[in-house]
Amino acid sequence: MPSAIVKRPRRWDQPFGESMSREELGRVLSAPHFAQMDEDNFPAHTSLAGLIQNDCRLRQFSANELIVSAGEYLNSAFLVLSGQVLLVRGASADQQADNSITAPAYGFWQALAKEFNRSTYPETREIISARGTRQNRQETNRVKSRQVDIESLLEVKGSDAIELHTGDLFGEAAVLGRNELLSSVVAINTVEVLEIRWQGLREFRKYEPAFKAFVDDLYRQRGLYEHLLTLPLLRHIDRTKIKQLAEIALFEVHGNFAWQKNFNSLNRRIDEDNYYNELIESEPRIAGEGDYPDGVLLLRNGFARISRKINHGHYTLGHLGAGGVFGLREVYSAWQQGKSQALPCSLSALGYTDVIRIPSQWLEQHVFSDSENRLLQQALQTALDDSQQGGQLQDAGVSVDRKLIEFTVENRYINGSKTMMIDLERCTRCDDCVTACANAHDNNPRFLRHGPKFGQYMVANACMHCEDPVCMIGCPTGAIHRSANGIVQINDQTCVGCSSCANNCPYENIRMVPVRDQQNQLYVDDKAQPILKATKCDLCIGSSAQPACERACPQDALTRIDLKDLVSLAEWVGR
Amino acid sequence: MTFAKRRLRNTMVTIGLVILSYQWLEIVALSLNIQQYYSGWLLVVLILLMLGLNLKKRFSQLGVGRTAGWAQFHYYSGILLFAVFLKHIEFALPDGLVEQVLAGLLALLTFGGLAGLLINRIFARRLAYSDEEILFERIPLYREQLQERVEALILEATEQSKSSTLADYYLLHLADFFARPGNTWSHLIGRSIPVQQIRQNLEQQMRYLAREEAAYALQLARLVEQKNNLDKHRALQGAMKYWGLAHLPVALVLSVFVIIHIVLVYAFRGAA
Fold first, then answer.
1. Computed over its alpha carbons, how large is the radius of gyration of chain B?
2. What is the Cα–Cα distance from B239 to B233, expressed in whole angstroms?
3. Fewer Cβ atoms within 10 Å of its own Cβ: the N or the C terminal residue of chain B?
4. Contact A335/A304 with Cβ under 8 angstroms?
5. CA–CA separation, A167 and A81 (whole Å)
6. For residue B233, which of B115, B121, B130, B147 has the smallest C-alpha distance?
């Protein structure tokens, strides 16, 4: 096959923002934290100056301009270089500001034109790298100014604000925890911030121990207080008491940040007899069945499995996600009856889990003593019975096979927010979903109509847009990133084809494909190796028929579903 | 909405529309108009709308609703169309050749469509619980790989046991089974007798095998099951796929005959 020889794309082909001038670089290097960094700690290929110039960008905001909004997903942390910003916890500024981050869908005529202008060959690219082009930079910089009214933000019930000044960092908790932002940040006056994308933050933490300690401490301290504020159970408690609680509550991290490696190696043994029991036993134990709890466990990040030992095996009752509560009923009963209560089941980390342990004594003093507390009664009602999910289903008057729930937890599909599920009793194998996907994406489908089965249901190999997208961990350029609304996307031009995301995806939903030019010539480097690009489902973002797979299914057999939402799952399987 | 509720709703709406159109055509006839002109154009409109499903599939990127919705519309419009067609021909076989062909094509399309719907529902259900989901396009490749595995197994069995009993049996009774797709009709009608016979024959053969060959025969039995599964997928998935491919050309031929019929009707309208 004829080929076109090109230079292999590399990290830092294109800086994160506009190229930094010498003066700007000097300003950043003399800013708090950076001034204390030792250039010698950084290797030559990842120099301190190189990281600042390529993985950071300077951004200016005017007074009342929204920088980030609660509920968004971030790929960067922000360091205040000058001016003041207000960090408002618990209030989303999205309603006020025109949320311009979501890409606009193209209209009917544009879609029709695209149908006729489709390339004849699969995976064609006009350019394979952002090197020397302004396209990527313009794309990443295309963030419309969002103005908000600070006063009305502060009026939101339950909101709480602090001012941040030069040298303060924000957004680090959302980036490190790979979760939604809990606070909105608004510029009070003219502000300059340094936006540090995840790849840069990772390297700064790796090579500069003092910076790592600072970020980690901030992540725990601020994250803990912010999380406690969001808990319905503590909503009536005064803020000074919550601050006290933040000081005495224990912040625990269970599991491995890059959990997919262990999961992938265990997955290779899926056919072995004792696979599931070994898998469960290998998961870090947060609380054991039969233990006497010394406090209530609150999940801040990640997922945890609730299981019970039955004879020689483990039975999965359900799972807890961020915001989940474990052990409340037992601690409350122990307080009421004056006698310790053992936990009826175990809680173990599914991957990486942050847990806050609230001491029983504090709860007894501030929460249990108020017997009229409706929030407590509600929390007790929804607290672990068999599992919290059971309550949800009962309330909605629907039911779902418990084995199906077990299947979703065992395979960690609860991590996904848009899992592709196919009802094989209705699927006629017509492949209209595959064709529609290929039509929307360079004549090459972004998923495989194949995957693990449970009874009549199949979870197809399509990106699930995970809540904890571990695929992003190793990306050297930030090409794979999550949009503010949670869609995991790949920037094709900054993808260097390193396969890190494809190797990290625990569900094998990312594929590396060789790319070619418009004349069907494969792009190869000077060693005749093909240029690869990572491809995966992007939920047809920008298209007016999204997602194309679901909309193309004539049999109503395919859905994109959040498998944590058991009510939706029960309704879908019970159709 | 559950499928049962949707089915009930759509059936009720279709029955209502059939009654309504019959009433309208009765009124047209009572007004001394020829109802065939009106019912004929109604049929043309319905045919065009039904072709919309195919266009929707072709242009999947257009945001004009979900294909499942278009499919539901297609199914129930088909029933309405056939009911209006019966009224159009006054429940009697037409006498012209073109009209007879047209009537035959429409009946073929309607009953073929219903049969297709039935095929989809039944076959999809029968495939849903098979051990492994197999992609139709890869079946020939899997079959070849399976054949290579089984031949390697037989060679190994012969070498290890120094006996050719299993190899002879394979060549005589199973080589053909592994060499090409088979038992298509049995799979289509849900009959498992052919594979049961293979299983039974292999079991009966066990007593004649050398001790070392027996273990290989058990492995061979597992490969028979795998081949049977491939054949089943090929037969059922093929029927679901190719039925759709047959339905569309008939619809296009029908459209051509409709045009001829309209031209003839208007050319000879004075004779009516």
1. 27
2. 10
3. C
4. no
5. 6
6. B130
Test B124 with A105 for CB contact under 8 angstroms.
no
Q: Which residue of A has its CA nearest to B122?
A: A425
Does the beta carbon of B9 lie under 8 angstroms from any beta carbon of chain A? no
Q: What is the pTM of this model?
A: 0.85
B135 vs A544: CB contact, 8 Å cut-off? Answer: no
Close Cβ partners of A187 (under 8 Å, ≥ 6 residues apart): A61, A62, A63, A64, A65, A67, A83, A84, A85, A86
Q: Cα(A385)–Cα(A400) distance, rounded to whole angstroms?
A: 16
Angle between helices A388-396 and A566-573 (to 10 degrees): 50
CA distance A275 to chain B (A): 19
8 Å CB contact of B71 and A548: no
**Distance of alpha carbon A225 from alpha carbon A519, whole angstroms:** 57
A31 token code pair: 């800013």
**Do the Cβ atoms of A137 and A130 come closer than 8 Å?**
yes
pLDDT by residue for chain A (575 residues), tens only, comes to: 678 888 888 888 888 888 889 999 999 999 999 999 999 999 998 999 999 999 999 999 999 999 998 888 888 999 999 999 999 876 666 655 544 444 556 778 888 888 888 788 888 888 777 665 554 444 444 456 788 888 777 777 666 788 999 999 999 888 887 888 888 899 999 999 999 998 999 899 999 999 999 988 888 777 788 788 878 778 778 888 888 888 888 888 888 777 777 777 777 666 666 777 777 888 889 999 999 998 999 888 888 998 888 888 888 888 888 888 899 888 988 988 888 889 989 999 988 888 899 999 998 888 887 766 676 777 766 664 445 555 566 666 777 888 888 889 888 899 999 999 999 999 999 999 999 999 988 889 999 999 999 999 999 999 999 988 989 988 998 899 998 888 999 999 889 999 999 998 989 999 999 999 988 899 999 899 999 999 999 999 888 778 999 999 999 999 999 998 888 999 999 88
Which tokens hold the place of A248? 């005495």
Type and span of the H or E element at A60: strand A56-61
Cα torsion angle, B39, B40, B43, B49, sign: negative
Buried residues in A370-400 as b, exposed as e (16+ CB within 10 A): eeebebbeebbebbbeebbbbbbbeeeebeb
Q: Are B248 and A430 in contact (CB under 8 A)?
A: no
Contact (Cβ atoms closer than 8 angstroms) between residue A225 and residue A246: yes
Q: Which of A453, A545, A557 sits opposite B62 (nearest CB)?
A: A545
Residue of B nearest to A554 (CA): B68
Residue with tokens 């009536």: A236
Question: How many H helices and E strands in chain A?
Answer: 20, 24
CB contact under 8 A, A111 and B70: no
Q: Show the tokens assigned to B214.
A: 């027996």
Q: Is B245 on the interface with A (CB under 8 A)?
A: no
User: Which of A550, A557, A575 has the CB atom closest to B2's CB atom?
Assistant: A575
